[in-house]
Specification:
Number of strands: 19
Helix content: 40-55%
Distance between the termini: 121 Å
Domain Phage head morphogenesis: 659-770
Pfam family, one: Phage_Mu_F
Region (Disordered): 462-493
Structural class: alpha+beta
Largest sheet: 6 strands, antiparallel
InterPro entries: Phage/GTA_portal, Phage_head_morphogenesis_dom
Radius of gyration: 43 Å
Organism: Streptomyces hintoniae
Strand order of the largest sheet: 1-2-3-7-8-9
Length: 779
């Protein structure tokens, strides 16, 4: 089969007769010839392209694409996406294509041919059979005929290619099988066997630039243009010749360009002196000549546009930022797509197996890292806005999904289910808490509990008594606890804990509703502000100026709040700025966040839930506990106002901190600032919502219990801690200790669990409880 094909190729070459050459040369960089019953498509590299280096702009464009593209390695990956180390195809393109040429030079020449001819041919040495593994690769610099087995009128495609004929300069004709030649080309939109060369689009501008350069060269070669004419007035021929001879040595040639030219006045007058005196006339370029010279800049821009090279990449005098942006554009818009075309052809022709995939690895290209950072920032913003699920975001960044399907959630429910919960402080007094893994669902059912309940059921049947269901769940909790009488007493710890669990979800929902409302309104006001160019520019400019000034003064610090210094409602896991008094007024957030309005609105949103917590805490001590009783009503009002103020102040402070960080950061865009603002409310609806709800549930319940017990005549109070690994050491040590009703517990620095006046390190997400001792009546 191979022998017959080679013989057909040789016969086709011997009987070749050109047909339709003129009509097709302008359409594609190959000529077409009819060979008996077969067709031959002959590569005809544009002769003008061989002189492209005469254009400095075209040369630099081709060099920029070829030299940069040649630096990218080819990677062959397996079905799992992992790179296959030491793959022979990757070795050919990255290490040694042949003994005579390095991989860098090989790829550079390959890209140069593609830019100038639109196609390139690579001979693949597969041994004598022509079908073995590729051991070497050689670029073909000679004329190549593409042989097809279908008439041109039937529009042959690559499926009709039966071979190639390489016509060497010494007249040797080398027939080549399709498997032995890698044909790379930039595809033609209307011709399945054609190609488009960027040089074609640039050639007209290069020609126009050459004409301009030739005009300029001829001008200088002829001594340049005269800047003025001196009319010498009336004189005879001998006098004129003497004057001209005297000035010739000083006025002729390029060295004298720009000097004044002496001429004899025309008979009958001529000079400004009417032919009787010496006159001067200024000469300059015509407007047409000036426009022609200016066209050189336009021609250069057109050449760069044709090759896809940004102007700021080659132009002198550009700033570092402009050149950096141009470099990224060159890679993302020009070089990367071209390498993808080449890589896909290599994958198709040299790696026919579906289990292997070849592509150029762009991960090490420094110019693309900024774009990758932008992708990461956009992905992060989408995650914080609950738009992308965790696994979707990881896939966007090239990471595998989280195990067990736990990444099939957006951020808020993911954190609510799986994120660590701050619990007991570390023993080294560091600002850290043990993680709470109790909310992570087990990967398998709790078989031990099922077996235990089954054993209990079997024993009950044998020994008599009620038989518990083997799969029974927990006993449903009561929505509210009520008392049948007004006899004051403290409920057991289990009931108090059950009350906490019932009340906490309502608080979380209330804070999350507040977060959604604030996010909607603040982002709406931000977007409206950004649509006003003058006002937004002034605001952003002031933020940046003040932020940079504060950074230079080095007095303000961005860090998470210290839980030993702030109450629980002021705590957040985001960085908060802290500094000397007065710095807050320099970073203004009033354009997007009105603290007075939001303090009032926060109280309105949270008050119904706080009232429910207080009602539950008071009635668990005395059934007649009344929220409208003046002392209780005043304390409740003060607590709601204080809580609303603390939550609003924290949100405002975090917003101001994000503006400060944005102002200090270099090159952040308006969308990135918007993502920062959005993150503040995502945090409020997630981490802070859980923290506020859990802390205020315990604090409000305990304060109401304290007021009810105090009114009922309690004399002392006892601290009870939940004894598990999350319990703080100080709370565990305080468990069982008793204090007077008007005293604090020394170890916890608290009047009751989750006391809002205690440091956050002692009150945040506390799960302890109080019991009370009452006076006994004398009989």
């Amino acid at each position: 089969m191979s022998h017959n094909r080679n013989r057909a190729l040789r016969r086709a070459a011997e009987t070749r007769a050109a047909v339709g050459l003129d009509t097709l040369r302008d359409r594609m960089p190959i000529t077409v010839a009819s060979i008996g019953g077969q067709q031959s498509l002959t590569m005809a590299l544009d002769a003008e392209a061989r002189g492209y280096a005469n254009s400095a702009v075209a040369y630099r464009c081709v060099a920029a694409i070829a030299d940069n593209g040649a630096s990218v390695p080819l990677a062959v990956r397996g079905p799992d996406g992992e790179e296959i180390g030491g793959h022979p195809v990757a070795h050919l393109f990255n290490k040694r294509p042949n003994p005579l040429m390095s991989a860098r030079v090989f790829k550079s020449l390959l890209l140069q041919q593609l830019e100038l001819a639109g196609q390139a041919f690579v001979w693949l040495d597969r041994g004598e059979t022509g079908v073995g593994d590729v051991t070497e690769m050689h670029l073909v610099f000679d004329q190549v005929d593409v042989i097809v087995d279908r008439p041109l009128a039937q529009r042959p495609t690559t499926a009709n290619v039966i071979g190639f004929m390489i016509r060497r300069g010494d007249g040797t004709q080398v027939p080549v099988l399709p498997e032995e030649l890698l044909w790379l080309r930039y595809p033609h939109p209307w011709d399945p066997l054609g190609c488009l060369a960027p040089w074609k689009a640039a050639r007209h501008a290069v020609d126009m630039d050459a004409f301009a350069r030739e005009w300029q060269r001829s001008s200088y070669a002829n001594g340049a243009g005269a800047t003025g004419v001196v009319y010498l007035g009336d004189m005879n021929e001998n006098e004129y010749n003497q004057v001209k001879a005297g000035w010739r040595s000083q006025m002729q040639g390029p060295a004298n360009a720009g000097r004044t030219l002496l001429v004899r006045s025309a008979p009958g007058g001529g000079g400004q002196g009417g032919g009787k005196g010496i006159g001067f006339e200024r000469l300059t370029f015509t407007p047409e000549e000036m426009e022609y010279l200016e066209s050189r800049m336009a021609n250069a821009a057109e050449v760069m546009l044709a090759f896809g090279v940004p102007h700021d990449y080659l132009a002198a005098g550009t700033t570092y930022e402009n050149r950096s942006a141009a470099r990224s554009t060159l890679w993302s818009d020009t070089i990367a797509p071209k390498l993808e075309v080449i890589g896909s052809e290599i994958d198709l022709r040299m790696l026919p197996s579906d289990s292997e995939e070849a592509a150029f690895d762009l991960s090490t290209v420094a110019a693309l890292q900024e774009a990758q950072d932008s992708v990461a920032n956009r992905t992060r913003a989408s995650v914080y806005s609950d738009t992308l699920m965790i696994d979707e975001a990881r896939a966007e960044l090239g990471y595998d999904a989280l195990p067990g399907g736990i990444g099939q959630n957006t951020l808020t429910p993911y954190r609510a289910l799986f994120a660590p919960v701050q619990g007991a402080a570390g023993a080294d007094e560091a600002r850290s808490w043990d993680a709470d893994f109790s909310r992570i669902p087990p990967t398998a059912p709790d078989v031990g509990a099922l077996v235990e309940r089954a054993v209990e059921a079997a024993l009950s049947r044998l020994l008599g008594g009620p038989s518990p269901a083997a799969d029974a769940g927990q006993t449903p909790r009561r929505a509210e606890l009520t008392r049948a009488d007004d006899t004051p007493s403290s409920p057991p710890l289990a009931d108090i804990t059950a009350a906490y669990d019932d009340l906490e979800p309502g608080g979380r929902r209330a804070v999350q509703a507040l977060a959604r409302e604030q996010q909607t309104r603040v982002l709406r006001d931000f977007d409206r502000l950004m649509k006003r160019p003058e006002r937004s520019a002034a605001w952003l400019g002031e933020v940046r100026t003040e932020a940079c000034a504060l950074a230079r003064e080095d007095q303000v610090r961005l860090a998470p709040p210290d839980p030993d210094e702030v109450p629980a409602a002021r705590l957040t896991d985001m960085d908060v700025a802290a500094g000397p008094d007065g710095w807050e007024q320099r970073i203004k957030v009033g354009e997007i966040f009105d603290p007075r309005y939001w303090r009032r609105r926060t109280g309105e949103v949270l008050r119904p839930w706080v009232e429910r917590v207080w009602q539950r805490g008071g009635t668990d001590i005395v059934g007649s506990f009344d929220l409208d009783e003046p002392t209780v009503a005043d304390a409740l009002r003060d607590r709601v106002d204080e809580l609303a103020g603390q939550v609003t102040a924290t949100t405002e402070q975090v917003l101001r901190s994000q503006l400060l960080a944005h102002g200090i950061a270099e090159g952040e865009s308006v969308p990135e600032l918007r993502a920062r603002i959005q993150q503040v409310f995502a945090n409020l609806g997630d981490y802070r919502a859980t923290m506020i709800a859990r802390t205020e549930t315990v604090g409000g319940y305990s304060q109401a219990s304290f007021l009810a017990a105090l009114d009922a005549g309690a004399t002392t109070k006892t601290w009870l801690a939940t004894d598990d690994k999350r319990t703080r050491p100080t709370h565990r040590s305080a468990s069982g200790s008793t204090a007077a009703m008007n005293k604090r517990f020394p170890l916890t620095k608290s009047r009751w669990p989750a006391d809002p006046t205690a440091p956050a390190s002692q009150s945040i997400q506390c799960r302890c409880a109080l019991t009370f001792q009452f006076e006994t009546e004398e009989s």
